[in-house]
Amino acid sequence: MSINALLTLIVLVIAAVVIGGVLLFQGGERTASSTAQTVPAEVLRKPDSHTLTQGPGDEVTVVEFLDYQCPSCASFYRNLTKQIEREYAGRITFVPRSFPLDMHELGMPAARAAEAAALQGKYQEMYHALFDNYESWAVAADGQNLSEDREHASAQFDRFARQIGLDLEQFHRDMASPQVTERIERDKADGKKAGVSGTPTIFINGRQFEPSGETFQDVGNQFRAALDEELAR
């Protein structure tokens, strides 16, 4: 079973995301298609793509297309990719790419915040701030729905920017800049070329990761096994 099918079978309650410790995905946010075909490296990663970890010679490369407001992405981050980033640091190259979905009002503003931070050399810090503080900006006050409050989210992004040492005026200019828009649109275009229509969609050395597990422990074991297999080649 693919991640796509898995996410349609297991419903993630956003309130549980707020509480933490979520072990299941939310349905309806992933593409129903799957493929074992290898996607060309030049589609999945550009020379200036951001990296969370860097492996020797980029021999094992993980690419994740994500939406920062996507509850499934937040759960995946909390329960798997954050740990993978730490456990495999220096061994794999981990490339996150933006794929904000129209259904998420704050997905695009959050992607802009991440890209604006990148222009000051702080992409990784903003990436972590957005996901580590997900409930503070992405979830509505009722704890049951996703927020659509752009003003509140903007205030939170400013808070993160100050915490990671950004020049706030430059951050605001860059968020609204054509350069940032073009960067996000390029990521989205490459994602569509790779067959992505939902988030999170992950590729390991060009092949889409499609686990059969029903819990994050199962999925994590399969993900690590796939990485270890590639590292052993």
UniProtKB/TrEMBL annotation:
Bilayer-crossing residues are 6-25
Alphabetical list of Pfam families matching this protein? Thioredoxin_4
Q: Where is the Thioredoxin domain?
A: 25-232
Q: Which Gene3D superfamilies match?
A: Glutaredoxin
Which PROSITE patterns does UniProt cross-reference here? THIOREDOXIN_2
Q: Which InterPro entries match?
A: Thioredoxin-like_fold, Thioredoxin-like_sf, Thioredoxin_domain
What keywords are annotated for this sequence in UniProt?
Disulfide bond, Membrane, Oxidoreductase, Redox-active center, Signal, Transmembrane, Transmembrane helix
In terms of SUPFAM superfamilies, this protein maps to: Thioredoxin-like (SSF52833)
What family is this protein classified in? Belongs to the thioredoxin family. DsbA subfamily.
This protein's name: DsbA family protein
Q: Which organism is it from?
A: Saccharopolyspora griseoalba
